[in-house]
Amino acid sequence: MDQYIIKGGKALAGEVCINGAKNAALGILAASVMTDDFVTIENLPDVRDINVLLQAMESIGAKVERVNRHTARICGGAITSVVVENEYIRRIRASYYLLGALLGKYKNARVSLPGGCDIGSRPIDQHIKGFEALGARVRIQHGMIEAEASRLAGNHIYLDMASVGATINIMLAAVLAEGQTIIENSAKEPHVVDIASFLNSMGAKIKGAGTDVIRIVGVPSLHGSTYSIIPDQIEAGTFMMAAAATRGDVTIRNVIPKHLEAISAKLVEIGAEVEEFDDAIRVVATKRLGHTQIKTLPYPGFPTDMQPQITALLAMCEGTSIVTESIYENRFKYVDELARMGTSIKVEGNNAIVNGVAELTGASVCAPDLRAGAALVIAGLVAEGYTTVEQIHYIERGYECFEQKMRELGADMEKVNSEDSKAIQKFKLKVG
Ligand code: EPZ
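Output (structure tokens, whole complex):
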């Protein structure tokens, strides 16, 4: 099994370039099969979740050509099946975007129901409510979710919570429904806007994405397009935290600073310097940073996908911080792993009381999920001595070349096979 080995203690410095947004790419890829024309998607991140979704699309007959590492040409015209039952697909939740896409295009879709998740139960009742409002019959049978309709007709849908996935899925089905759909209390995340922009580039008529009311006027068909995905807000935020935690000086390129405002504001509040440029952001920390209170909220609030990374940072800052998780019921599982490195964090319900400690020590830890894995790496970059992070397949779901990018910023970090004692020894000899 691959693992990261890290020797902590180096301040990160230099420049890092951010890849395309994984969560936007997942929706955009699903949407790309809604036309029979060829679609070219640029700035695709080369990460596991994206590659699994592309395989699933191929398994139903879609043509997928990898033009280069970050560009794919896709044609949904060759689709022969609306049943997506790839053995891996249930491991990525966003596979359910194929449900909205295929239901919209073919009025019929069957997709493996995504499995459980380490960050808490993640129901899809709002997706189902939306599809039903458009006229679909939805059933869950034999581990599959099935949606079918003789015709889809626009409707007025009020979401009980501003769910990112439900907003995107309903939008996908509604662009090819007859008449107008209004989604109220829709999610406003940057990737919701990006997916709407992509659909509009294919001829859809969507207005209001990025606000809490989205209006869609159905069109009979969509056409081909070439589209470049926005930069990944969470990858950028993760490097911002790593820069601050290591008391480094890092310029993060290919970002949209507006999408990072909630993250930048917290870093400034605890004493880091954050400088914004047109498409870059520089984070500098020259001293031990201070404490704060954070509550995760839907965009433009502080993102839940940055909660583990900022908690890792606060665990080494001065004073006591409170981190409140309001999106997921169980997103503090990594705290026990961080504790192995000497942190002092007490979880009470949805709150983590983080007592900053002056020093962390390297340990062997295990990534319980994607963002928590990134948080453990950040702690490892600071901890005295060696840290090994296991289960890095979670991290590779969402971060491209994570160890390479960290190394380019000066970190002592490598991916090694846990059985390969020679490689581990070689790393230790190299970094001293
Ligand atoms: C998206 O998940 C992201 N995934 C998640 O990123 C992210 O954590 C989340 O949005 C919140 O920002 C993708 O975009 C692929 P939601 P999603 O529907 O769409 C409840 C990462 O690390 N809910 O906005 O599944 C739900 O249980 C991942 O990259 C219902 O109750 O999130 C949760 O508590 C992890 N019923 C809350 O709403 C529903 O029908 C928000 O979920 C739908 C959601």
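The chain is about 30% helix and 25% strand.
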